[in-house]
Amino acid sequence: YTGMWYPWSTTEDATAHDLPRASQSKGASAEFSFTGTGIDYIGEKTIAMGEAEIFLDGATQGTTSLQVNDFPVLLGVTLYSKQGLPRGKHTLKIVCQSDARINLKGLRLYA
Question: What residues are paired with 64 via a beta bridge?
Fold first, then answer.
């Protein structure tokens, strides 16, 4: 993690390295290396959330919005998905685009 990220949990035993995590700092990023053929970025969508720019292997994949206006909260949403990558080592980077909160609940890897 770079920039300001914090545990986003109601459990008292959450540590600084556990998921879920959240950030409200423009430019803050989370970067993950993995070996496989695909990855999903999983989070929550709700009102007053921001956008995240996604990079895969250093190339931008565009932005994803974590905001939803017509439902209170959507849990466990796949916010970005990429499959069919050449088998090998890859890097996913998630960058906060504003001072509105983004979150990271988990990652799903494909072998």
Answer: 52
